[in-house]
Amino acid sequence: MRRTGSGVRKACVVTGCVAALAVGPSSALATPGTGVSGTILATGTSAGTLKIEPPKGRADVVVRTITIEPGGSTGWHYHLGQLIAVVKSGTLTRTMDDCSVESSTAGTAFIEPSGPGHVHIGRNLGTEPVVLYVTYLLPKGSPLSVDADAPQCAQAQAG
């Protein structure tokens, strides 16, 4: 006996209904939340893939707001763990240890790598405050940043 096109369609419809019945009850068991609220502080999009490497062992996770006034800077420093930053407003201009310059505008996100090989300075060269929302992933007990000397290339440019 040959199966007709309508028989195949009927089998597909029955299979679809069975699948829907299997999934349907699980979503009906979901419960709405109560007494919960949330506030999005900042949203940023990275230029590429974010590669996060948490510290080995126990970690301190710190969430901080940083404001850099026009003309202000962070001073040369590095971090003992990675940090994830979202630029809420303004434009942050960072000079890296090789004297390359990266600008991050409002609505962008970036990761700063860890260790003394990643010395950098953040500056606000604009006319409005730079506001950052930063999450630090630090080895337990570490400071948020470590002051550092300017790299050779920056000293040569200043002199």
TrEMBL record:
Residues 66-135 form the Cupin type-2 domain. The keyword Membrane does not apply. Pfam families: Cupin_2. Keywords: Signal. The keyword Signal applies. Gene3D superfamilies: Jelly Rolls. Residues 1-30 form the signal peptide. Transmembrane segments: none annotated. SUPFAM superfamilies: RmlC-like cupins. This is Cupin domain protein.
